[in-house]
Amino acid sequence: MTDKNRSVALVTGASSGIGLATAQALVKAGYRVFGTSRKPVANRPGMTMLICDVADEASVQEAVAEVVQQTGRLDLVVNNAGIGLIGGAEESSIAQAQRLFDVNVFGVARVANAVLPVMRKQKSGRIINMSSILGLIPAPYNAFYASTKHALEGYSESLDHEVRNFGIRVVLVQPGVTRTSFEENLTRADQPLPDYASERARSEALMRKWVETGDAPEVVADMVVKAATAKKPKLRYSAGKQSRQVRSLRRYLPERLVDSLLRKVNEFPATA
């Protein structure tokens, strides 16, 4: 198959982790793939890397324009770029929380706004937004990160209804805890308080433990390919056993029981 006949995909945050695994899986599935990173990264087999900071409007527009200039079209976008934030909600300044939203939510919107004119013109396209199980449940000491994923859920579902008439679908992929570098793209609260220190440290250690035993990035990548190639895509795709369990838990169990289970999993006292 020549480049001219291959579907074109753009994956943000593709230098490592889930983004890299996703880009590689899409190459294997037959896509012509462009990946992005904030810093220069060498091209990988079947994959062209571009510099793009999703928090910068001009950078996003330039990256999308480059893809379209080289290929004349854009069939699939995977919004994977994002950053984490660990710490008590009270421990983050509003400026730090705004930065998180600027990348994890408004970064997705910037990319969507840049690619939608192209997709509307060609009357086809698919946008896959990387959510999380933390878009479904609370996350102590990850309150602002979970908030960005909850916001992404609402944005994506609403946008999907708006663009269906143009032959475009917006899809959410919801990974569970995934084995990626714990420190990668992670920031810590900028106003730490002694009152939260011990619980914060305990929660961080627990998160490290979960990451070590989490799903491989390829589990998420395979689900992205499934969501990308489905003729009639679902709105949400759970990536991995944990994600499926959390989605069922949130959907079917009473709120009080969910609250109790979440406290148990996070090793908080049963009553507080």
UniProtKB/TrEMBL annotation:
UniProt keyword annotation of Oxidoreductase present: yes
Organism superkingdom: Bacteria
Recorded GO MF terms: oxidoreductase activity
Ketoreductase domain: residues covered: 7-169
Keywords, comma-separated and alphabetical: Oxidoreductase
Record carries keyword Oxidoreductase: yes
Family of the protein in this entry: Belongs to the short-chain dehydrogenases/reductases (SDR) family.
Protein name: Probable oxidoreductase protein
